[in-house]
Amino acid sequence: MAIPTSRTKEKAQIIINDELCIGCGRCVVVCSDYSLTLANKKATQATNPIFGCIGCGQCMAVCPTDAISIHGRTISPNDLFELPPVEDTANYARVLALLQRRRSVRRFKDKAVDNETIEKILDATRTAPMGLPPSDVHVLVLDSKEKTRAFASDFCNYLGEMKWFVSNWFLALMRPFWGKANDEMFRGFIKPLFKVYIEGMQQGENLVNYDAPLAIYFYGTPYSDPADPIIAATYAMITGESLGLGTCMLGAVHPLIQNGKKAEKFRKQQGIKHKSREGLFVIFGYPAVQFKKGIRRTFAGEEFL
Ligand SMILES: Cc1cc2nc3c(=O)[nH]c(=O)nc-3n(C[C@H](O)[C@H](O)[C@H](O)COP(=O)(O)O)c2cc1C
Q: Which of 28, 87, 90, 231 has CA atoms 20 to 30 A from the CA of 264?
């Protein structure tokens, strides 16, 4: 058995065309599984790979003569494409300008994000790296403000049924198990958040996802690396910015819909197929607010060893 994912548990198949192979060894160098070696000046399958081919595709992408192809684990030579010219890539100054101009946006114009723009976001986001191929990230797209509001409204109703989760007796009970930092987070952030979300919605104000015209939820499966959906969400956010959209990540929904029967029912109702350790919403829309200045940010610590 190869490394299991929710999509496939097979290892990929490596096919080498000896006639085309020039023995340059590039495929051997890029293979992180040690599935390949050189024998008699030809690429050959190694007898002692680490896991068996994980189907990353790097060997066929690096081969100068198309002598190697990978099949299975959702990949095939059909997944290769010509690289865009290097002159077309963003340089540091442009990337930095895009990042410096980004702000979390929570107020949007009443303008839909069209399908072509959504497809552009997803196209760019599919390039995100993942802990292990193939990507185990799921994407749920809410493509209108009516859909984001309906989700938020259902979420607030669900929170209404889960109020015990932030009750004083439950938090006191849990403190020895989940520790001081979690206790402080629940009392100082999650408990007031329940109130703000529920009361906001009762008064007609959607503070969950701000009636954004587009929300995309990235979540994993029990198999995926917990970082994968977060990386995909980050790619989506930056792509959205490059398309002139305002964006904001929303971290509060995911952890609150993971545990228990009610959470399972909520996920099912919303078409969310798995529970997962990490997940993140990103909302998008044409910003109704323009920021005049950037804000300098710092990390909690930066040690150079
Ligand atoms: C992981 C993550 C989760 C977040 N969750 C929320 C959220 O649930 N609701 C919200 O309004 N903003 C949320 N934000 C936005 C942050 O509050 C925002 O990034 C922060 O205020 C800094 O503002 P800036 O992005 O303009 O620098 C989240 C941001 C991140 C990175």
A: 231
